[in-house]
Amino acid sequence: MRQLAQTMRMESPKPLFSYRKHWAHRFGTAPFLPMSREEMDLLGWDVCDIVLVTGDAYVDHPSFGMAVVGRLLEAQGFRVGIIAQPDWQSAEPFAALGRPELFFGVTGGNMDSMVNRYTADKRLRHNDSYTPGGEGGKRPDRCVVVYAQRCREAFRDVPIVLGGIEGSLRRIAHYDYWSDKVRRSVLADAKGDILLYGNAERAVVEVAHRIARGEPISGYDDIRGVALMKAEVPEGWTVATADDLDDGDEGARYLGDNTVVRLPSFSQVASDREAYARASRVLHREANPGNARALVQEHGDRELWLTPPPIPLTTEEMDGVYELPYARAPHPVYGDAKIPAWEMIRFSVTIMRGCFGGCSFCSITEHEGRIIQSRSEGSILREIETIRDRTEGFTGIISDIGGPTANMYRMACKDKETEAVCRRPSCVYPDVCKNLNTSHEDLIALYRKARALPGVKKVMVASGVRYDLAIKSPAYVKELVTHHVGGYLKIAPEHTENGPLNKMMKPGIGAYDRFKQLFDDATKKAGKKYFLIPYFIAAHPGTTDEDMMNLAVWLKQNKYRADQVQTFLPSPMSLSAAMYRSGVNPLRPVRHGASEEVETVKGLRQRRLHKAFLRYHDPENWPMLREALKNMGRADLIGPGKKHLIPLNQPKGTGTAGGEGKRVGRKHKAQQFVTKGVRVPMPGS
User: Can you give the pLDDT at residue 227?
Assistant: First the structure.
């Protein structure tokens, strides 16, 4: 056991492309990974080694998870087939490619299927950006569970490996907003053999080679970033309970390499709100690959075992992943049908992964980690040239150069030893850490080289700019505005009031004001007419009616009118979801009877009121706002003047027509990936 635990340390892992290739590499590279037996025949395959089942249409591009995993496994020598958006009413479509030699890989796609299918008000969406024609209804609720069950029906003896963001965010017992209850780990519900969480390139390659060697999956608990079900905690491990861990003492108290931290059990977190908050707090504090320990959570008579998070990819490995032989197009089976997500990113380039912002409502850090993984300049520039030369319809404009955020490229802790022991959930909250390198020089240099490439007319930045970092570099703001903005720039202050901002782990509105001043100055000097598009969240835990009223007054004073607004949606496993579920703040120590309470907004009427404050100008919201303002003792905000929030009488018409004000939240090509208050990774992240 001690030897097993030693492998969990933050040491140099086996390089991603150093494995001996599987014998089937002799078949070469497929133009597209096959989706039919006919394509397999053309490739000379009698079987697939691995079949990937996904809730998204198959687009062979590094912005789509199944393409990344498929091409990476192909590069390891395996024959990989794709079953995309199968009819889940029977097992027959899951047997379309025959019995895979090694395993089924099951993912819901680039988004959690419930976030994809339902709005924050639990209304069914009628469109799906990852489906041909944008058609809705092509995936079931809780994709991973349903797909895994059908795979098991098709071939009962084939191992099932779960992955993707849906599996990642549901890897432990978690609150499910749509059923309003705590559900078991998706590994237990789906009856999978193993779950890979986070960006799982290292894990999936190791798992594939071990299965090919005939090694039993039960022994894969020395692989980082996996979840397994065990009968009991193995002999030789020291068990530290979540009750014992908090703040500064945990690292000193349990120094053993063979320590596993016991989270409150499924039955406890399902019935005890403080137990749920404590589990969430510990999970997020055990997220640094440098010092995280294994976690265990009882599920009935079995133990859910989570190994520490994966070690981030090196720059060379990132380059290798993004330069695999993608066809960079949707599979020909879709013909001329438009796939909206592909149309949005076909001329964009991902330059990095991860986010150290740690926003409590966001799933990026939870899935990708807070250590930034950056590609090399050369790799990024080569991809731009590939887009220029190979992507149909390219007009000389790169639509985005970024990632989960626009401006964290090559940023990292100044001291690797400090980084390895840090348990802060955010490097920028409550203030930017003194140990964080916030230099934008490498990013500025990349921008300049990208726009200097022959055939490239303009390089846009559509990813969200982290403004509390940008104000550290006025030179970056100037570069951004002068060369990389087209009319407007999206930015996410999320709120103006400290109450909700503190629960979101977002900076105060003063940081936004400083960025806006830099942006406006740079715009003026560049002779441009550009605008900031700020996003705000309604009904986040810790938000009062007064907070939303004050935000609405701020919007009115700054002449902003929101076309589209975000209502908080508790994404599985997020800290904000823990606040929503428990009414307890997991950002602070959680102890029975001594936990910090959080005011939550759960009633439909109050959620609608908070949303209405963001759209104070909409005539349809006038009756609700008038009643609320009177009940709050703020009738002084009702009247005909500029200082008033709403007029005396209900305006004619609906929507945003009439009156002054810049419209905020205009739909643009990246809007799809900011989903009603839930930050989800950009495709492929």
Answer: 98
Distance separating alpha carbons of residues 514 and 238, to the nearest angstrom:
49
* Rounded (5°) CA angle 403-119-348: 20
**What residues have CB less than 8 Å from 26, skipping those under 6 apart?**
none
Encode 394-426: b = buried (16+ Cβ within 10 Å), e = exposed. Answer: eeeebbbbbbbbbbbbbbbbeeeeebeebbebb
Provide the domain count of the chain.
Answer: 2
- Band (679; pLDDT cuts 50, 70, 90): very low
259 inside domain: no
| Cα–Cα distance measured from residue 135 to residue 207, given in angstroms and rounded to the nearest whole number | 34
Any bridge partners for residue 60, and if so which? Answer: 329
> Residue 454 burial by CB count (10 A; 0-12/13-18/19+): exposed, middle or buried?
exposed
Other C-beta atoms within 10 Å of 36: how many? Answer: 15
Q: Phi/psi of residue 654, each to 5°?
A: -135, 170
> In this predicted model, what pLDDT tens digit does every residue of 576-600 receive, in sequence order?
999 999 999 999 999 888 899 999 9
Average pLDDT over residues 104-130: 96
Q: What's the rounded Cα separation, in Å, for the pair 180 and 178?
A: 5
Find where tokens 């002084």 sit.
636
Do residues 514 and 653 share a domain?
A: yes
Q: What is the pLDDT of residues 234-245, one digit of tens each?
A: 999 999 988 756
Residue numbers of the domain that contains 137: 2-221
Average pLDDT over residues 461-487: 96
